[in-house]
Amino acid sequence: MKSLIIAANWKSNKTLDEDDLFVSKFINSYKANDLKEIIICPSFTGISFISSKLKGNYGKISIGAQNVSSFSQGSFTGEVNAMQLKDFCSYCIVGHSERRINFSEDLSIINDKIKNLLEAEIAPIICVSSLDQLDGILSSINGKSIIAYEPLSAIGSKDPANPIEVNKFSREIKEKFDVKVLYGGSVNSENVSDFTNQDSIDGVLVGGESLDPISFLKIIENA
Ligand code: PGA
Fold this sequence. Notes:
Blueprint lengths: L3 E6 L6 H14 L6 E6 L2 H11 L6 E5 L16 H4 L5 E4 L2 H6 L4 H13 L3 E6 L17 E4 L13 H14 L3 E5 L7 H5 L6 E4 L6 H10 L1
Parallel strand pairs: 1-2, 1-8, 2-3, 3-4, 4-5, 5-6, 6-7, 7-8
Helix pairs in contact: 1-2
């Protein structure tokens, strides 16, 4: 059996109390499986807490950030740089369509973020919604990088992409580059195995359905 990555993108959700509630319910029923690496990506405000509770304590649970500064340390008010994340995170999401659209993140910003993450030895989870979006990015990635294919129409829509098409897309990337490829967009406990059973898909990036510990545990179980 192949190994899988199951990543939770909590987006801008959860207070510290809600983080705490998630952790207590999650660890009650979570069964570690060496073939399934879980990556939880909370907001910056929850990273320290979630990391202290879950990182390394229950087998293969890693912590990821959802964003990083395109600058390194210095006079950049409000920014969190890659070296600061390194204490807590082994992964960081970058290039998510919500950031490209709502925060005008372009290729040059995304590439700077990837470069900073790789320098800090944090693996970037690079989100793309089309093959075209990979063009300007691939020169800056290495084997630590993960690509998450997230078609725009599938995000938060309850209308996931076709698993066969996603597998084809993943294979094309993997033929050219030594990277893992995840699928993201309306993944739930019922459809997760349609994706994870495909030979070229290495796991999933889950938004909405990862917020509730019970539904996230079901996704992990069924993956
Ligand atoms: P969704 O989000 O699972 O809620 O569709 C996925 C994502 O945006 O990463």
